[in-house]
Amino acid sequence: MNKRLTGACAAVICMSFGAEAVALEWNVSVWGKRRAFTEHIEKLAEMVSEKTDGEFTMNISYGGLSKNTENLDGISIGAFEMAQICAGYHEDKNPTLTAAELPFLGVNTLPEEVAVSTALYQHPAVQKDLARWNAMLLMPSPMPQYNIVGTGEPRSSVDQFEGMRVRATGGLGEAFKAVGAVPTSVTASEAYNAMESGVVDTVAFAQHAHLSFRTIDQATWWTANLNPGTVNCPVVVNTDAYEALSPEFKEALHSSIEPAIDHYIENYNKLLDRWEEVLAEKNVQKVPISEDDLAKFRGATAGIQDEWLAKMDGQGIPGQELLDTIQTALDEARASN
What we know:
Low-confidence stretches: 1-19
Structural class: alpha/beta
Largest sheet: 6 strands, mixed
C-alpha cells in the first residue's frame, strides 16, 4: 500500500517496532531529467528497495511535484518526503548552507566536496537552520568547480567580464559582480532560453549541467580553468516522514547513502572523462585564464567572505564556525589521501 507520509498519519503507517514493516512509498522531488546530478538519488532508491524487498520504495519525479525553487517549501509542508534543493535558489531560507557557496574556498575534487558538505551538514547551526523547514539533511550532491560557456568573442581575461550578463547564483553571482559582471539567478531549467534570448551572455554551470540543460549546444567557448566555486545542493527529507520510518527502513536508508555517493562520483568521473570529446564534437573553444587574471579575480572577491560573515553575525549565525568547519574538513580530507 502506497502512502504519503505526513504528520500523525505517517506515524500510524510506519511504526513497526518488533513487527514486519508496512510497505510505503516516498515521493521525491527533483527537476530536469535523470543525469549525473541525480544519480545518487536513483542509486539510493534502488538500494533501499532491494534491501527492503520492495517494501520501501521511492517515486522520483522530475518536475512533476514542484518547481526546483520551491522544493524546500514542499518539504516543509509535507507535500513530498524527499527533495533535492540548492542553497542559492533561496539564500534567505537556508543561510547557513551558503557558506559552501562562497567563492574560492579551495575545494578541488568531488571527494573533497563530499567531505566539506558532510561536515557542514552536521553542524548544529545548519541543522537548526533546516529544521525551520521541517527538513533533515540526508546527503550532498557534490559538483566540480563551475566554469562558464558563452557565445561570440571569448572572454579570456577578468577585464572582459565587465558588463557580462552571466547566469550565476549565490556566492558565484557575487564573485562575478565583484569584477563588473551582471549576474542573474535564473534557474537551471531556464538557462538555455535565457542564453538563446540574450537575457544572459554566459552561463556558469558544472559540466553535467551544461550538457543536461543544453547550454553547451549554444556555446562557442568555455573557460577551462576559472574555477571560482560551486553550488551546494543537498538532498533533504521531511523530518516527520523520517521519524515515522521503522528501524528497518531507517537502516536501509542510512546504509545506502555512502554507496550511493560512491556511485555518483564514479559516474560523474566518467562524464568528466568525456568532456574533452564533447568540446571537440561541438567545436567549442577552450579558453584558459592566465594565472595573473585568476589572482586578480581572487583579489576582487576577497571582501565577499567578510560581507557574508557580517551578514551571518547579524542573523545570530556562527559564520566563522561554519567556515572553520569547512576548512577543517578540507584539511582532513587531504591528509587522509
